[in-house]
Write a structure and sequence with these properties.
about 75% helix, globular
């Protein structure tokens, strides 16, 4: 049985049930990120949550790249997904203590899922351009993994000095083409993505984040007591979530998604528009959820500290992310490419 998804002009690759099952872990992860801020509503708490969000997103989007190539109906691919799901669950459980007592569990699970998934992908391919990309990616994840693990065992005040360059290596690897000495770098032409599936998966993650914001605000309303003010605030929060959903899925996502497979270099577009430019979109949703929770939890109290930044900055960050995403898929040159490159 072939491990790869079939390709062709008339072949459609819808999201499978095992991929939706995998996403359930990340509902929990996004909820954990919201509570990192709510448990420490300071600038430092927001900064830690932003750092952890980048890691959570990278674990998910890297797996999405793999499943865009491989057929989830193949038993070996499903086994890899379940393994990544387990590591992701343990990583998500450790998020609140990642900079404290759960650092080893958090870093160990993240490294295991990154290195293990990349190695499994290279083993399943065995040959070809995509195999070289996965093999090079495994080497990058091993190097960054050493920094993650080293950072987990040092004192907490020294941890970021190792984890920051580790995250930079992870995020920078696709932009660098997974370059290795003597092996060169991969080009985005090597990625051979199925654009409709990729866009659908990322839309699904945005809906996960929006769903988490509804869960957080609903739980806060139940705890605060369903007074008239709280009910009105809950209605306003739902309408806000609906507006965010419509801006992305209704007004942008559905029109932009078909543009991905139609472009000359869909791999580059997927890397730019989905892999990188979705981070501010998800961050904005989490900030909105935190702001709504602070408002609903005590609607009669004036916001202070980071509260106004969450309430006003969250929607602004989300709108900016959607605008950048839409502009990139529309073909605007948001980054400078070498002369003669396709956009």
């Amino acid at each position: 049985m072939s491990q790869l998804r079939p390709r062709g002009d008339r072949v459609r690759q819808p999201t499978t049930t095992v991929e939706l099952f995998f996403d359930l872990v990340y509902v929990f992860a996004v909820t954990q990120l919201s509570h990192v801020i709510l448990d420490d509503p300071t600038v430092g708490g927001v900064a830690r949550a932003a750092f952890l969000l980048a890691i959570v997103w990278w674990a998910w989007i890297s797996t999405t790249w793999m499943v865009n190539w491989f057929d989830p109906h193949a038993p070996a691919v499903r086994a890899v997904l379940i393994g990544v799901m387990l590591a992701s669950l343990l990583m998500a459980a450790a998020l609140p203590g990642a900079f404290a007592g759960d650092a080893t569990l958090f870093a160990g699970c993240y490294v295991a899922l990154q290195v293990g998934r990349n190695a499994a992908a290279a083993g399943l391919l065995r040959r070809g351009r995509r195999c070289a990309t996965c093999s090079n990616g495994s080497s990058w994840s091993v190097v960054s993994g050493a920094l993650w693990l080293a950072g987990a065992v040092v004192d907490a005040d020294q941890r970021l000095a190792l984890w920051a360059p580790a995250l930079a290596l992870d995020l920078g690897a696709p932009a660098a083409g997974y370059w290795l000495p003597g092996r060169g770098r991969a080009t985005t032409d090597d990625y051979d993505i199925e654009g409709e599936h990729f866009g659908e998966r990322c839309q699904g993650f945005v809906i996960i984040a929006l769903g988490e914001s509804i869960v957080v605000t609903g739980a806060s309303a139940a705890i605060a007591g369903l007074t008239a003010t709280v009910v009105l605030s809950l209605v306003a929060a739902l309408l806000e979530s609906a507006a965010l959903w419509w801006l992305y899925v209704g007004a942008t996502g559905e029109r932009c998604r078909p543009a991905l497979p139609a472009r000359a270099d869909p791999g580059r577009l997927a890397r730019d528009a989905y892999t990188y430019l979705h981070v501010p979109i998800v961050a904005g949703i989490i900030a909105v959820a935190v702001g709504d929770d602070l408002l609903i939890g005590d609607p009669g109290r004036a916001l202070s500290g980071i509260g106004p930044a969450m309430v006003f900055g969250g929607p602004a960050l989300y709108v900016a992310g959607v605008a950048l995403f839409r502009a990139r898929l529309a073909g605007l040159r948001l980054v400078q490419h070498h002369q003669g490159a396709t956009p």
